[in-house]
Target: NAD-dependent protein deacylase
Amino acid sequence: MPRHVVVLTGAGISAESGLGTFRDAGGLWANHRIEDVATPEGFIKNPQLVHYFYNQRRAELQRVAPNAAHHALVDLEAELEVGMGGGLTLITQNVDDLHERAGSRSVLHMHGELLKARCEACAAVFPWHRDLGSEDVCIACGHSSLRPRIVWFGEVPFHLDAIDAAMARADLFISIGTSGSVYPAAGLVRLARTLGVRTVELNLEPSENHDFFDESHQGPAATIVPAFIA
Ligand SMILES: CC(C)NC(=O)[C@H](Cc1c[nH]c2ccccc12)NC(=O)[C@H](CCCC/N=C(/NCCC(=O)O)S[C@H]1O[C@H](COP(=O)(O)OP(=O)(O)OC[C@H]2O[C@@H](n3cnc4c(N)ncnc43)[C@H](O)[C@@H]2O)[C@@H](O)[C@H]1O)NC(=O)OCc1ccccc1
Model:
């Protein structure tokens, strides 16, 4: 029975909660060009468009709730800690707070969080639950240079050291609801293999890294994640 489990989640785990994924039909990238809304260059060129993109998603987030897949990971966290004296490291590419709302206690948001803002003048980070705009002022330094605390393309993801440390002690790596198309997140399954860690894919369809998994189960996350964890 594995004791130290690393789970990586992507947009697919939040799909059944009603949040759009990126690459699926009608997904986020169907209506917006990545370079316009998810790059530092796009933010300099058109901050209103970028704020509009994230304000839409922040408002939508407050209308949805975690699903059975999020809740199953809370049970796994407790089981590993209490039962096995081990632990769960939950790494997510998602910027939503559905893992925390389900009850997950330690979540590594490697691509940031929608409900936080960061000041580009003094680097202060604080919770932000309403629309964000260029006129908004940083409560720490008074400058109006706030941006969503999100990792854009070309920017270094968060928590890379904690992620490497968790992978180094893992005995099971589970990937849930991700297409495996964005790096360095998509490279974690290969790192797991080089470390001799067992790898499992839980996804609606085979991901771009399907061949790197020892075991793969296809289906909707809210069904297959509780089934796999039970
Ligand atoms: C497009 C891609 C090729 N480009 C990259 O990967 C780039 C460049 C790059 C770096 N290394 C490379 C190597 C090779 C090639 C390119 C690169 N990477 C970067 O720029 C990264 C930064 C990338 C982060 C960008 N920000 C995001 N998000 C925040 C914004 C926002 O949210 O708006 S990425 C964003 O897109 C990705 C979307 O992927 P998924 O979540 O998987 O969603 P998707 O829609 O694609 O797939 C959904 C899946 O779910 C499944 N599904 C659907 N419904 C269900 C269901 N119901 N149940 C189960 N599964 C389901 C579907 O079948 C599908 O498989 C996520 O990562 C998400 O966070 N930064 C960096 O590399 O810095 C340097 C560095 C790196 C390391 C160390 C030092 C320096």
Summary: The pocket of BV8 is lined by residues 10-12, 15-16, 21-24, 27, 38, 93, 95, 111-112, 150-157, 160, 177-179, 181-185, 203-205, 207, 220-221 (CB under 6 Å). The chain has a mean pLDDT of 95. The domain at 21-63+114-150 is CATH 3.30.1600.10 (SIR2/SIRT2 'Small Domain'). The CA atoms of residues 4 and 170 lie 5 Å apart.
